[in-house]
Automatic annotation (TrEMBL):
Chain intervals for the UniProt region annotation (Disordered): 119-172
Composition bias, Low complexity: 156-172
Tagged with keyword Zinc-finger: yes
Organism lineage string: Eukaryota, Fungi, Dikarya, Basidiomycota, Agaricomycotina
PANTHER family in UniProt: OS03G0429900 PROTEIN
Listed name of the protein: Replication protein A subunit
Localization: Nucleus
SUPFAM superfamilies given in the database record: Nucleic acid-binding proteins
Main subcellular location: nucleus
Length: 610
DNA sequence: CCCCCCCC
């Protein structure tokens, strides 16, 4: 145990009584603490889906309950810290939640990943910080008249000194809380946050009545929260709140967020009310601007349909303003398509809607960053802006400058690859481990029994190939591939209205594949035959005509090989019987290095491997 | 209190 860092003795007691403290010194002190235990707190019902970690911290004398800010979750999940870790708490705040004093760790630096417990820390007097005892016995619980209970010693005193100093430069010097600390349990707070993704004003009519609303995402160093204004509050705040500006916000209502309707990372959301105060703040230091998590346009094929993503690229083309009529509402909606390219050599179409489509000005091929665009599968991959998406023209970030340089020097002359759909127009284009089903499950779950095709992936071995009718004579015209019929000494394609001296044979393969759970018949077209036989259908037809034994050998060689499949299941009626057929969208030979890596990863992360 | 995000 030699060389363990010294803990900051006494800090837990000071934090527990921080209302009596010179907070500036205390909150700048960057104490070293031991993290005794981690407990995952599951998402609350109706809240978001983000787990949080409750951590018991110790200074060697006392322990104190704390929460990790969610942006630190990865430290636990990636095993960078575990039971007994020693860390410098670089940034934190304190809050009163359900009558308990809670340390909120916003940033930390790991000194020791794991260690034995240092000293024998005890509970702080009367305060059940240990978490094991009953809070109600000592401090008033949340159920005892929440409003009548005076707000516990002002958390104002417990704010990071730096933020407090900034706040003091404002006329009314409110205490500034991190967004991370907001909760329904206490309401005397002010946050200082940047307004992002302000929506248009939207109206609704339903059984309960009608109204209008807009929403905006507020963001500070600690996190983000979605805020919504209804009806009268729309008139009060819509013009006042401007995208990108920083505001002091107080007296808004904190509610549980219904996470399925938003991708904002917070358990709660705000509702602006009549008495809510929103004041622009000119001191914007330490209030972050948008955070992007860019993916390359080429990588969009690996992003699931309906997911949101961030893209940055050069606008190669700007489409005309047009309109569509919504099928659902019959509303006419303005629309504009942008074609965006990046250094991956791919292009993608981004659809703007409504005002954003109307107001888009076609300046000279700007760099644009898109945040939270929705991924669609039209023509392979497409992007669509939503009300929660945002668009940033020529942002002052390194990626944008790099793209500008690249495009002006070379990119402008380049041709770009568009994403393309592989005949399905649906999902299942790529093999995705998350979509792997065993064949028994595919059958019992009745994949493909609905009207729409359903997609699944499988890893399976070829057991048998129907070899009587493995290919057909097809039109040799690029992109046609229709069946041709022999007429005299030529082959005629109805579709192309042309005759050819020779057809081009194309595969149409039916094969039984098997995994540990069961067997299924899959059908595949030309690329599938090419993959499993390692030759074109023309070559194989040629072999069959010359040497039946050699032909059978080629078929035999394809048996017993294992592939990763991306499949489509679809109902099909033939001769008055309806059954589900499975078509192969993609067939990929196993890459054993990759398979081994995948398995090793499972081993490393499973409990029974420890 | 919304929770739609559209079309080809």
């Amino acid at each position: 145990m030699a060389g363990l860092p010294q803990l900051t003795a006494g800090i837990c007691a000071r934090l527990a009584n921080s209302e009596n403290e010179d907070s500036e010194e205390l909150f700048n002190s960057q104490p070293t603490l031991q993290l005794l235990s981690f407990k995952k707190v599951p998402p609350t019902g109706g809240g978001n889906n983000v787990d949080r970690y409750r951590v018991i911290v110790s200074d060697g004398e006392h322990f104190l309950q704390s929460m990790l800010a969610t942006q630190l979750n990865h430290l636990v999940e990636e095993d960078a810290i575990s039971k007994g870790a020693v860390a410098v708490i670089e940034k934190f705040t304190c809050n009163i939640v359900q009558g308990k004093r809670l340390l909120i760790i916003l940033a930390l630096r790991v000194l020791v990943k794991t260690a034995e417990k240092i000293g024998s820390p005890g509970s702080l007097q009367g305060r059940p910080e240990g978490g094991a005892s009953t809070p109600a016995a000592v401090t008033p619980g949340p159920s005892t008249s929440t409003n009548a209970t005076p707000a516990p010693p002002p958390v104002a005193a417990a704010q990071p000194a730096r933020q407090q100093t900034q706040a003091n430069r404002n006329a009314r010097a409110p205490a500034v809380y991190p967004i991370e600390s907001l909760s329904p349990y206490q309401n005397n707070w002010t946050i200082k946050a940047r307004a992002m993704n302000k929506s248009d004003i939207r109206t609704w009519v339903n059984q309960r009545g009608e109204g209008k609303l807009f929403s905006v995402t507020l963001m500070d160093e600690s996190g983000e929260i979605r805020a919504t204004a209804f009806n009268a509050a729309v008139d009060l705040f819509y013009d006042k709140i401007q995208e990108g500006k920083v505001y002091l916000v107080s007296k808004a209502k904190v509610n549980l967020a219904k996470k399925k309707f938003s991708n904002v990372n917070n358990e709660y959301e705000l509702t602006f009310e009549r008495n809510t105060e929103v004041e622009e703040c000119l001191d914007v230091t330490d209030v972050p601007t948008v955070k992007f998590n860019f993916v390359q346009i080429s990588a969009l094929q690996d992003v699931a349909k309906d997911a949101t993503c961030d893209i940055i690229g050069v606008v190669k083309e700007v489409g005309e303003l047009s309109t569509i009529t919504s099928k659902a509402t019959s509303k006419v909606i303005p629309k504009r398509e942008l074609t965006v390219v990046d250094r991956s050599g791919y292009s993608v179409r981004v659809t703007l809607w409504g005002k954003q489509a109307e107001q888009f000005e076609a300046t000279d091929q700007p760099v644009i960053a898109f945040k939270g665009a929705k991924v669609g599968d039209f023509q392979g991959r497409s992007l669509s802006m939503m009300s929660s998406s945002s668009m940033h023209v020529n942002p002052d970030i390194p990626e944008a400058h790099a793209l500008r340089g690249w495009f002006d020097a070379a990119g402008a002359e380049q041709t770009f690859q568009a994403h393309t759909s592989t005949f399905t127009g649906g999902g299942g284009i790529t093999f995705d481990r998350a979509e792997v089903r065993n064949l028994n499950e595919v059958k019992t779950a009745e994949f493909g029994m609905s009207d729409k095709p359903e997609y699944f992936c499988a890893q399976a071995t070829i057991m048998h190939i129907k070899n009587d009718n493995i290919s057909y004579p097809a039109c040799p015209t690029q992109g046609c591939g229709k069946k041709v019929v022999e007429l005299g000494d030529s082959w005629r394609c109805e579709k192309c209205d042309k005759s050819y001296p020779k057809p081009q044979h194309r595969y149409m393969v039916s094969m039984a594949v098997s995994d540990y759970s069961g067997q299924a018949w899959l059908s595949g077209f030309n690329d599938v035959g090419q993959t499993i036989f390692g030759m074109s259908a023309d070559e194989l037809v040629d072999i069959r005509e010359r040497d039946d034994t050699q032909y059978n050998q080629v078929i035999e060689r394809a048996i017993g090989n294992t592939y990763n499949f991306a499949c489509r299941a679809k109902q099909d009626s033939y001769n008055e019987t309806t059954r589900v057929r499975y078509a192969i969208n993609r067939i990929i030979p196993l890459n054993y290095r990759e398979e081994a890596k995948y398995l090793a990863n499972i081993l490393t992360h499973s409990d029974w491997a420890r």
